[in-house]
């Protein structure tokens, strides 16, 4: 490498360092608007000169287009000659002609000067001459055989580094997936038995790892492509566009993130205060539900529902207050989403609100609660769940019946457990006996059958009532209380068996005489035939008659 080449490189480096400072003190603007961009001559991504005035019949935009056309017809040999600035004219018609190898590029006239720059015509021409020479030297440097060889070597080295980083990312991804799989294999017993939950967590973590890997690969590929295109002069503009886009994207995201910090802090404080308030209300209502606190109009049965309602109201109020501080709350997209969700709620809330309000009626009327034995219409069983929209009942066949709350409120609800908390259910059964049997005997036999029932609570008196005097028979009702843990269907089944045995034992038929002639002998089963085949006597089943 000769001395001339060394000096050219040194000059190129010096001009490259000084070029940004020169641009700040000359006509081109660092942040031009659309009007200035149309009048600025840009070469190699660098602003060179801002045309302010007309030259003859040519406007500023036409002058820029003419310069670009002249540069395209220059030959490679012209770049080896320095750019010259030659003055011409005097007074108002004075100017400088910039040329290279005797070929005119463009003229600088007095009308192009901006008084705010504080530059004379000669100083402006000198600045433009330095910028053009710097660009010329850069062009020679980039298009030299040594520069191209260096660019190829750097491109190859960068590609190898890019491939190595991709391989490293894939290795890290594989190790992360293996670690996730191994960690899920070491879950505690209560969680490992839930295969669905374990698989869901494993898939979620695997998806996060894959998504992170994909983003890293895309970002790394973008950086590698930008750097690779910047090694060659022909693809340098593409590299600058990619870099400018990435820088603008990062700057925009960073600026938006910083501007959103005060609003997010405000939203966080609002939600934190709401969370503390709801926790305090939860403690108070839990104590009221356990009976440790008493408030007028608040019952233990309604404390849980009241707590949930107040929690929903508080969170809705907090969301309303925090909405203006959310990032993008005033954007059209956010407003469109609000309208969309509002429309969905409006269209789907008619039936839902009907059931929800019916659920509130059930809760605050204390008509039923989980654990109560009820009869709703033709459904009889134990209430297992009382939610905002429906009520679930477990029948004696162990079938779960779901009733919408609007249906429950619109019908008749018979609650067998409400008047006897902590005790067994009060059960009734009816029999119809003819007028030829003394009612006192019927009453005594029903009481005896009740006392023989092992699932009945014998600490409480048995009640026998004559409900109706019909045309051919008397309707009797037997009422007793079952044990606390006894099922109604089991108690009724045992009681009905003892009623039949008792009436057969004393020779009284259980048959409503809906006929014209009375049978010659009572319709009953003798005691000797009580255990006719295939029945077998079993005292363990509750048969206490001897």
What does this structure look like?
It is a single chain. The chain is of the alpha+beta class and 546 residues long. Among the domains are: 34-143, no CATH class; 365-415, Roll (SH3 type barrels), CATH 2.30.30; 426-516, 2-Layer Sandwich (Alpha-Beta Plaits), CATH 3.30.70. It has 13 helices and 13 strands. It has helices spanning 3-25, 34-37, 60-72, 121-142, 145-185, 189-192, 195-229, 236-289, 300-322, 332-364, 405-410, 439-452, 488-505, and strands at 40-43, 46-50, 83-88, 95-100, 103-109, 373-376, 379-386, 390-395, 400-404, 413-415, 426-434, 463-469, 473-481. The strands form four sheets. Strands 9-8-7-6-10 form a five-stranded antiparallel beta sheet. Strands 3-4-5 form a three-stranded antiparallel beta sheet. The protein has a three-stranded antiparallel beta sheet with strand order 11-13-12. α1 (3-25) crosses α4 (121-142). The chain starts with a helix and ends in a 41-residue tail after the last helix.
Compile the SSE list and pairings:
Elements: H1 3-25, H2 34-37, E1 40-43, E2 46-50, H3 60-72, E3 83-88, E4 95-100, E5 103-109, H4 121-142, H5 145-185, H6 189-192, H7 195-229, H8 236-289, H9 300-322, H10 332-364, E6 373-376, E7 379-386, E8 390-395, E9 400-404, H11 405-410, E10 413-415, E11 426-434, H12 439-452, E12 463-469, E13 473-481, H13 488-505
Antiparallel strand pairs: 1-2, 3-4, 4-5, 6-7, 6-10, 7-8, 8-9, 11-13, 12-13
Helix pairs in contact: 1-4, 5-7, 7-8, 8-9, 12-13
- Mean pLDDT, rounded to whole units? 78
**For the terminal residues, how far apart are their CA atoms?**
129 Å
List low-confidence stretches. 1-26, 540-546
Number of strands: 13
The biggest sheet, with number of strands, parallel, antiparallel or mixed sense and barrel status, is:
5 strands, antiparallel
Radius of gyration: 48 Å
- What is the topology, as strand order, of the major beta sheet? 9-8-7-6-10
Strand % is 5-15%
What class, by secondary structure content? alpha+beta
Could you give the order of the helices and strands? HHEEHEEEHHHHHHHEEEEHEEHEEH
Shape: rod-shaped
DSSP helical segment count: 13
**Into which percent range does the helicity of residues fall?**
40-55%
